[in-house]
């Protein structure tokens, strides 16, 4: 490689030269190198079959022999000192704009990336309540907060769909009690996870209740079998990694200054997405329904004058712009707030009519620049992501 040679590798360190030479030769020897538009990162030996790489969820796929970049693995590196996060996630914590001394709720917090970022922005002063729905996930948040030495984070196991504290027993005379008949739309509009939540609630009740639901075709045979297994075998080892995790019964209305809802979603913005499950129009709509139900809880928990930030890692407008439309049309005391920093692009304006007649309403003109949509194919080169920030006005309206 001469100095005048137009090498793409001229600026790299001497010790990588040998590896780079191989890459450089490849550039010309491989006629498809440019067409593939891949980024050459070195050479290695595959340890799994091609199919295996896409199927196995953990393990070594390629043992790198020559690397262009001599980057160390970030696993266990500088534990407690650094936590890798993608750009839109960092922006989400900043968009929430948490202040010292405030009480913040992170409704779907595990593994705690945004929770810890929020606590750091608050200089560890105030209260960050981080909840997630499983013991292990809450334990992950606790571990991360402890590693980072953050004291203002309190964690709870809580289903975000039930995050508003229930009424006391005496107030509950008029509400359906456990095992009582519930409105059928409570079930039909629930997502897969919603169904899971329902049936696990039923575990606490009687088996007759489950059988009853099954007879009415309201839960699948598979769900019934799963619950039978749970009843027989207990919660299973995956339910406890260790550590003490406190359960919450929910929080009183208007009890938070700011709420972050980093909602579970179809994750269509994630890269690489090696283990994509089946995505159907129906499953996307189910996510949207689930997110709205969580958002309804967030609205109740934030105080008038407070802030809600809603985010997802999907590019599906049904879970993003359509959620914003739902929020603004349903709760007249909410308004879109501008975000800082502003790095993502504008949201989608308009609507979409599906062939089955279902219509999805997105943003209206003037609203698009108040949200941030991160397009994974844009030059910004981030994962697909969406952030909306709402100011909460007087709830008397
Ligand atoms: C997008 S991830 C959150 C990522 C997290 N905010 C972070 O930055 O590290 C969504 C989370 O929602 C949680 N989740 C899903 N359904 C839930 C529910 N009903 N209640 C509470 N958490 C839920 C999942 O366990 C998952 O950890």
Automatic annotation (TrEMBL):
<keyword id="KW-0694">RNA-binding</keyword>
<keyword id="KW-0489">Methyltransferase</keyword>
<feature type="binding site">
    <location>
        <begin position="108"/>
        <end position="114"/>
    </location>
    <ligand>
        <name>S-adenosyl-L-methionine</name>
    </ligand>
</feature>
<dbReference type="InterPro" id="IPR018314">
    <property type="entry name" value="RsmB/NOL1/NOP2-like_CS"/>
</dbReference>
<dbReference type="GO" id="GO:0008168">
    <property type="term" value="F:methyltransferase activity"/>
</dbReference>
<dbReference type="Pfam" id="PF01189">
    <property type="entry name" value="Methyltr_RsmB-F"/>
</dbReference>
<feature type="binding site">
    <location>
        <position position="132"/>
    </location>
    <ligand>
        <name>S-adenosyl-L-methionine</name>
    </ligand>
</feature>
<keyword id="KW-0808">Transferase</keyword>
<comment type="similarity">
    <text>Belongs to the class I-like SAM-binding methyltransferase superfamily. RsmB/NOP family.</text>
</comment>
<feature type="binding site">
    <location>
        <position position="159"/>
    </location>
    <ligand>
        <name>S-adenosyl-L-methionine</name>
    </ligand>
</feature>
<dbReference type="GO" id="GO:0003723">
    <property type="term" value="F:RNA binding"/>
</dbReference>
<dbReference type="InterPro" id="IPR049560">
    <property type="entry name" value="MeTrfase_RsmB-F_NOP2_cat"/>
</dbReference>
<dbReference type="InterPro" id="IPR029063">
    <property type="entry name" value="SAM-dependent_MTases_sf"/>
</dbReference>
<feature type="binding site">
    <location>
        <position position="262"/>
    </location>
    <ligand>
        <name>S-adenosyl-L-methionine</name>
    </ligand>
</feature>
<feature type="compositionally biased region" description="Polar residues">
    <location>
        <begin position="182"/>
        <end position="191"/>
    </location>
</feature>
<feature type="region of interest" description="Disordered">
    <location>
        <begin position="167"/>
        <end position="192"/>
    </location>
</feature>
<dbReference type="GO" id="GO:0032259">
    <property type="term" value="P:methylation"/>
</dbReference>
<protein>
    <submittedName>
        <fullName>NOL1/NOP2/sun family protein</fullName>
    </submittedName>
</protein>
<dbReference type="InterPro" id="IPR001678">
    <property type="entry name" value="MeTrfase_RsmB-F_NOP2_dom"/>
</dbReference>
<feature type="domain" description="SAM-dependent MTase RsmB/NOP-type">
    <location>
        <begin position="8"/>
        <end position="393"/>
    </location>
</feature>
<dbReference type="InterPro" id="IPR023267">
    <property type="entry name" value="RCMT"/>
</dbReference>
<feature type="active site" description="Nucleophile">
    <location>
        <position position="313"/>
    </location>
</feature>
<keyword id="KW-0949">S-adenosyl-L-methionine</keyword>
